[in-house]
Amino acid sequence: MRVVDLRSDTVTKPSKEMLEAILNAELGDDVYREDPTVNKLEEMAARKMGKEAALLVTSGTQGNLIGLMTNTNRGEEVILEAESHIYYYEVGSIAAVANLLAKPIQGKMGVLDPVDVENAVRPRNIHMPVTSLVCIENTHNRAGGTIWRPEQIKAVSDVARDRGLRIHMDGARIFNSAIAQGIDVKKMTQHVDSVMFCLSKGLACPVGSLLCGTEEFIERARKYRKMFGGGMRQAGIIAAPGIVALEKMIDRLEEDHKNARMLAEGLKDLNFRIDMRRVQTNIVIFEVDNGEKFISEISRYGIKASNFGRNKVRMVTHYGIEKKDIKYVLETLEAIF
Ligand code: TLP
After folding, report:
1. Rounded mean pLDDT of 262-277?
2. Mean pLDDT, the chain, integer
3. Domain locations in the chain as residue ranges
């Protein structure tokens, strides 16, 4: 049966060029910092993000957790969006592992209002925890892959800096944001202290994410990575496809965005409830009567999607999904519903 897997861009498989790069990678022990391929990827990532240094981590979740811990001290409070990945999908590690207090605030289409951030900062008071970090998510997954514009990041960053807070960006899909806006990622990352981005989503690598910041920040982050069992040895086999991704896979995200738009417009024409303002990158979220039932129904035709709440479904376009697949999905939905 034909399978069109739109559950996530995490399902992408590496390209032939990536597999060849793995085979040919020069390797060493990265805990000794002797893997030339990892070193090269980390340098490339830091340069792309406009930061001094970068650290290859096993996943976005690990990168965010290390980012949280390196930016804060135990018992402090972190302001973040109420449906952010860190708060919603990281198994409560912010509390369970990092020993931080989360202060979720509601954003508008995933974007925090600087006034709300300002109001959420605790006053200096003996009774209260210290607010020390703001986290933003760009693109924002649960809001529908929505972007943060550089001036929106700057506005929140200005508040954070003014109040002596640090700012971390979960940029799992930062390149989707940059491509959608036609800007260099540095226009966004210049306003944050640390940024995590993923190789294993739209960039189609099998594994890996990068945490970026100052030399000193990354030095401390490296220690946490080791603590979490994330010190990998011949990790060049992970870094090699990462280098291919940074060189070759960024510009093609545009194609995923076009396919997402085509999918969203088709769904709208089929009378699905969908907020088109949110369809800005490669994520399409729409309403159905019963998410679980809908997903089980379409799976009979080889179409896979994610349940995103009782009556919401998410479809994500990615490397390996072509226009003809979107056509097939729309034709199938028209036939069944
Ligand atoms: N998101 C996954 C699931 O965990 C929901 C997905 O399918 O979208 N930040 C953001 C914004 C993410 O969307 C994700 C993954 C992560 C962090 C975590 O990355 P991984 O899966 O590498 O731990």
Report:
1. 98
2. 98
3. 4-11+252-336, 16-247
Residue 110: left (phi > 0), alpha (psi -120 to 50), or beta?
left
Q: Is the CB of 84 under 6 A from ligand 1?
A: no
pLDDT band at 337 (very low <50, low <70, confident <90, very high): confident
The two tokens of residue 159 are 């508040």
User: 141 CB under 6 A from ligand 1?
Assistant: yes
Q: Which residue has the tokens 């018992």?
A: 75
pLDDT at 227 over 90: yes
- Average the pLDDT over 11-26 and give the result: 98
Dist. CA 101 → ligand 1 center (Å): 21
Structure tokens at 2: 């034909």
- d(CA 209, CA 193) in angstroms, rounded, equals 17
Q: 4-11+252-336 belongs to which CATH class? A: alpha beta
Q: For residue 15, what pLDDT is reported? A: 97
Average pLDDT of the residues in 113-124:
98
Domain 16-247: give its CATH code.
3.40.640.10
Task: Sort 315 into a burial class: Cβ within 10 Å, 0-12 / 13-18 / 19+.
Answer: buried
User: What separation in angstroms does the CA of 174 have from each of 58, 181, 193, 214?
Assistant: 18, 11, 15, 19
User: CA 242 to CA 17: how far, in whole Å?
Assistant: 11
Q: Residue 211: which H helix or E strand, with range?
A: strand 209-213
The CA distance from 18 to 28, in Å, is 19
Which amino acid residue places its CA nearest to atom 13 of ligand 1? 141
The pTM of this model reads 0.98
C-beta separation of 254 from 49 below 8 A: no
DSSP bridge partners of 286: 274, 313
Atom from ligand 1 closest to the CA of residue 173: 11
For residues 299-308, average pLDDT: 97
Residue 200 near ligand 1, beta carbon < 6 Å? yes
174 within ligand 1 shell (Cβ under 6 A): no
